[in-house]
Each structure stands twice: as structure tokens, then as C-alpha cells.
Amino acid sequence: MFHNILITGGAGFIGSNLALKLQKEYPNSKILILDDFSSANFKNLKGFKGIVYSCDVSTDEVFFKIEDFKPDVIFHLASITDTTVTDQEYMMRRNVDGFKNVLELAYDNESIVVYASSASVYGNVREKVPLKEDREKSPENVYAFSKYIMDNLAQEFAEKTSLKIVGVRYFNVYGPREAHKGKFASMIYQLYLQMKSGQRPRIFKWGEQKRDFVYVKDAVDATILAAKAPRSTVYNVGSGEATSFNDVIKYLNQALGTDFEPEYFDCPYDFYQEYTQADMTKIKEELGFVPRYSIQRGIKEYVDILEGRINE
């Protein structure tokens, strides 16, 4: 049971879904959200009953904003998630320095820390096999590098202080409350918007690239469970399945009642992950986590929410 819960980045995509789920699961707990609103939207927190402060956790103001709040657990989701940012100093300062501040806060309050890592740390994997947490890392851009360094920092800090620090290595998360991300929202949402407007969905040639898409409700469940990990570690958070872009369009067609054919075009990127699939063995064995949503079920529920057929 958590009495005081701190969520950084709590007005963002995963953070807001997490805040509302925790509010429901722990109705007697106090939940405090810190978010600088640089890539978030207050509308994501409709129905949230806790406190929200505007705060950039990479600055010293974070220590003053929560000086009277003693968190039992910190869910650290605040970071620059735009993978196209090339300003290395900016990315590292916001992500890595911000995480260091959060760890110092945790040390002062003896808090458990659960933080957002990323499957991007694995790099461009050639062999099509599920990715295990302990495989070699090969970050290909500064965003992935910042997450890789955060993983290293977490391990070092945990060994030095005996704090429990647990990383959740998210794969391709999609679902409600991501619309504010615009062009950085999930591919599933982008394709939905194209098809909803009557356009053929555009994907890179020839649509056989595969991704591990995980529905945000599953990602949130795994994140909450991670706070109960037996020790400091990192867990993959995916569906455990690799789904082709062509199949995503097929499932969107089924959910929308449409029959669009894909429009293929050349990939413009030098670096592009052709294949991702999470090995979910570790989180299943240690925490008992099994995703509830297949890609087909997740897309159907998501489209039903977007279309107003069901409530979130």
C-alpha cells in the first residue's frame, strides 16, 4: 500500500493513464504530479483529484516543489520523448540530469523509484528474435543514448544506496491520451487519423516491418507492478508479439468497418528499427505480469474509444 505517490510527467501519455489508474486502485493515497507541460495536456487529467504542479525536474525547483511531500514511491516518466531532437546537450540535461535529481529526492525520502526506460536502447536489431533485457545495447540516437545512460545511473545509484530502483523498458505503447503528441503519437493513432479522414494509410515499403505494440493499459499495469519488484532491475514492457504494419492496417480496417489498401513509400530515415519484439519472460516470472491485450483487441478498444462508442 502506497500512502504518498509522486508521478513526474503525470500529464503526459503514459503518466496520465498511470495517475488515473493509481487513483482508482489506491483511493486513500495522496498523488502528486509534477509536469512542465512542454509535451503534455491538462485534458489528459480530467477526473484527477490530486495535486498538479508545473515543474521541470531537471532544475533545482523540484526539491522545493515537494519539500512537504514524502513519497513512498516515485514513478518517473518525465523526459524528452521526441526522438528527432538532435540537440545533445538539451536531451542529456533534461533526461539524465532530471533523473539524477529524482534519484536524489528518492534518497532523501527513502522512496522506491520506477522509471521509464526504452526499447530504443537495443538499437537496430538484425536478428528477428525476442529481445532479452541483458542483451548488448546499441543506442542509435541521443534519445536512446539518454535512456541507456539512465539505466547505468540507476544501477550505480541502487548499488551505492540500496534504494530499490526499477526500470520499465517500454516498447511501442499506444492508446488513449496520446493525441496531444501530434506527429509523435503512435503509428496506430496516425494511421487511424488517415483512415478516418478517408485517406489510404501510408506506410514504408512494403509494410512487413514488425513492431512490438503494447496497449497503454497493459503498460500501466506493468509499471504499477514494477514497484513491487524483489530488487533493483529492469523489465521489458511489451506485448511479447511482433506485428507487421500491414496487419495493423488490417485490424484498423476491421475496427472501423473500412477496406483501405495501404499506400507504400520509401523510408526516409538512415536509422530505422525494422523489427522489435520483447522477451517478456523476466517480468512474467518475477512479477506474474501477462499482457491482457492482443494487438487486435487493443486496436478495437482504442478505436471504440476514439469513435465514442465506449468510455475510457
From TrEMBL:
Gene: rfaD
GO molecular function terms attached to this record: ADP-glyceromanno-heptose 6-epimerase activity; NADP binding
Record bears the keyword NADP: yes
Organism field: Sulfurihydrogenibium azorense (strain DSM 15241 / OCM 825 / Az-Fu1)
GO BP, sorted A to Z: carbohydrate metabolic process
NAD-dependent epimerase/dehydratase domain span: 5-238
Primary enzyme class: isomerase
UniProt keyword annotation of Cell membrane present: no
Taxonomic lineage: Bacteria, Pseudomonadati, Aquificota, Aquificia, Aquificales
Alphabetical keyword list: Carbohydrate metabolism, Isomerase, NADP
Entries under InterPro entries matching the protein: Epimerase_deHydtase, Heptose_epim, NAD(P)-bd_dom_sf
A Pfam family the protein falls into: Epimerase
EC number(s) reported in the record: 5.1.3.20
Protein name, per record: ADP-glyceromanno-heptose 6-epimerase
